[in-house]
Amino acid sequence: MSGTPHFVGIDLDDESRHRLAAGLTAAFEDHPVPGLRVPAANWHLTLRYLGPVPPPRLDAIIHGLASAPLGEGFRLRLDGLGAFPRPEQASVLWVGTAEGTEELHLLRDRVEEALEATGMPREDRPFEPHLTLSRIRPPVDVWTWLEADPLLDVRVDVDAVTLFRSERRPTAYPVVGRFPL
Question: Residues in the chain with pLDDT < 50?
Fold first, then answer.
């Protein structure tokens, strides 16, 4: 399939980005986060990675998300660190969700239904809500960072789903469309 990679996610407002960045800086000033850190401007929670999307399919996705009953807005609380695939050999360090997780799963299900109606196959991987902080190559043990357990407590009002385009160089995620809840 040709086309530019896209994904559907939750964008963070500037205040949430600032609060999360400040909390992480305070927690890790003595031992910076390992790996290639994701810039705060690129922070988001992915609901569904779409991969390369050709223009005709992109139009259908935009229409499908715009017309889908995505539900009502809710408040999400970001807190707690985790790692993929496991802390002893992590390739990704992330912030998880502490509140609003059920609502986020329901929203993800509604996004899946909207995408399926456009001909996209359903995602077969389990949904693990997270915000990626760092990509680590080669993988390392991140228990030191997880055990620091910083109190981040960042609240995000989720009032829209965003369709992003994924650009490689420089890494950027331009907004293609926002779909209000």
Answer: none
Residues with a catalytic annotation lie at 44, 130
Identify the structural domains of the chain with CATH numbers, from first to last. 4-180 (3.90.1140.10)
**Statement: the pTM of the whole predicted model exceeds 0.90:** yes
Three-state DSSP string of the chain: CCCEEEEEEEECCHHHHHHHHHHHHHHCCCCCCCCEECCHHHCEEEEEEEEEECHHHHHHHHHHHHHCCCCCCEEEEEEEEEEECCHHHEEEEEEEEEECHHHHHHHHHHHHHHHHHCCCCCCCCCCCCCEEEEEEEEEECCHHHHHHCCCCCEEEEECEEEEEECECCCCECCEEEEEEC
Interval 66-81: pLDDT, tens? 999 999 999 999 999 9
Q: What is the pLDDT of residues 163-178, one digit of tens each?
A: 999 998 888 999 999 9
pLDDT reported for residue 1 = 54
